Amino acid sequence: MRFQLEGVLQSQTLEELRDELLAPQADWRPGHESAGWHARGVKHNRQLDRASPLHQRLAALVSESLEAHPLVQSAALPVRLHGLLFSRCGPGEGYGRHVDNAFMAGGRADVSFTLFLQDPAAYSGGSLMLESPAGEEEVRLAAGSAIVYPSTLLHRVAPVTSGERLVAVGWIQSRVRDAERREILFDLDTARRQIFQREGKSEVFDLISRSYSNLLRRWGE
Ligand code: NI
């Protein structure tokens, strides 16, 4: 299941973030330095140096906003967010077809996210393309919105043709590693919340809630 988050960051925060990220003193490095051996040849972007104090401050801010989002909690069931990095692509840059590594320094990657930081009018191209058996889905969101998708998907970033694409990407280790199980739990959680809103802590609510908790107990880790 893939889902969109809107308004992860407010416009003033976004503006401040962009100012700091695009300032001349920010330390951007070639992205292929951090790619897995099989993705190195197709990764053409720049990333903010993860060791820099600027990265650490901004990554913490973005990670907290994402992790606090109710939809992330309910649909991704995070153990932790990890590996957040800031990526920029100018004309001719992009990221060819690849799958994200299963394990990274910060944990297992069950769920991937891309948070768009730049107004879509500020650049051309640069769409995130997610592959599924039905074909490719093109994702290009407003600044401050994010797409969250299973890390099991092949995906790519189409080449930027003008302007500059600026995003934060990262991963979530989930309590439930299987995407179909996460989806069942998300449906049940959504249903029990709606029932609770409509009729309070009714008998039906208790039964759905029990199923939710017991499935999470079975599948969670
Ligand atoms: Ni990727």
Unreliable sequence segments: none
Structural class by helix and strand composition: alpha+beta
Please provide the ordered H/E string of secondary-structure elements. Answer: EHEEEHHEEEEEEEEEEEEHH
- What molecules are bound to this protein? nickel (II) ion
Q: Can you tell me the overall shape?
A: globular
Count the E strands: 16
CATH topology of the largest domain: Jelly Rolls
The gyration radius over C-alpha positions equals 18 Å
CATH architecture of the largest domain: Sandwich
Output the CATH class name of the largest domain: Mainly Beta
Explain what this protein looks like in three dimensions.
With 221 residues, the protein is an alpha+beta fold. The chain folds into 2 domains: 172 residues, Jelly Rolls; 41 residues. It is 32% helix and 33% strand. Strands 1-13-9-16-5-4-2 form a 7-stranded antiparallel β-sheet. Helix 4 packs antiparallel against helix 5. The protein starts with a strand and ends with a helix. The site of nickel (II) ion has 3 residues, from loops.
